[in-house]
Structures are given as C-alpha cells and as structure tokens.
Design a protein that fits this description.
The structure is a single chain. By secondary structure, the protein is of the alpha+beta class. It has one domain: Ribosomal Protein S5, domain 2 (2-Layer Sandwich). 39% of the residues lie in helices and 21% in strands. The protein contains four helices and four strands. Strands 1-2-4-3 form a four-stranded mixed sheet, with helices on both faces. Helix 3 links the parallel strand 3 and strand 4. It is globular and about 35 Å long. The mean pLDDT is 91.
C-alpha cells in the first residue's frame, strides 16, 4: 500500500486540542494499558481519528518529556493509516518507554487490544 504525502502528515485537524474533548475522553473513554503507555479511546461523530499525547508528571525533565511525545507522535504518524476511523485517542506516556521500537510495539499492541488496528 503506497501512501500519499498528505496521508503521512499529522495536521491540526487530526489533533485533539479542546480541553472539553480531552476531559470527556478521560472521563468516559475505554482504557487499555501496558508497561510504559496507556490508551484512552472514545467514539467521535467526525468520521476521522483525533489523537493527543499526554506525558505523566513523573518525567525527569522537559527534554525527556518532549522527546517521549515526539517519538510517540512519529509512531502514530507512520501507523495511523492502519487504524479504524472515527475515534478520539489519548496516549498516556510513562518514563519507562523511550526508544522508537519500544514505543512502536507498545502503541500497536494497545491499538490491537482496543480492536482499532486493521
């Protein structure tokens, strides 16, 4: 499957940004977890996925926290085409997971566990 350039990006329309939407997701969404990452999902009426990446407060500093978010966003960007559409997703990141491959395997595991990965 060859993806077009616009399918590989992560535009603002695919980012979950409103505080009310994020609060609703954490209040009512289904929760799946593994070592180093947790996933919250809730159906939306948009017909497309929106994602947010939330690091916990126990990261040692901003460099480590921002790197974890950057790596997780990259993994999402590369794999989002294989995810069932119509959901809001929140990936909660813990300091245990740092490497690209570890984040990738955790994210794909959680998406499969939630039944969202094709």
């Amino acid at each position: 499957m060859v993806l077009k350039r616009h399918e590989l990006g992560f535009p603002k329309a695919e980012k979950l940004r409103e505080k009310s939407d994020i609060d609703r997701l954490f209040r009512t969404g289904a929760r799946f977890s593994c070592k180093g990452m947790a996933l919250r999902i809730a159906k939306n009426a948009l017909g497309k996925n929106r994602a947010v990446f939330v690091p916990v407060r126990s990261f040692r500093g901003s460099v480590e926290r921002n790197r974890a978010k950057r790596v997780a966003r990259e993994v999402w960007r590369l794999n989002k085409a294989s995810v069932v559409q119509g959901y809001d997703l929140a990936f909660v990141l813990y300091p245990d997971t740092v490497g690209f491959e570890e984040v990738r395997s955790n994210m794909l595991f959680l998406l499969r566990k939630a039944g969202l990965f094709r």
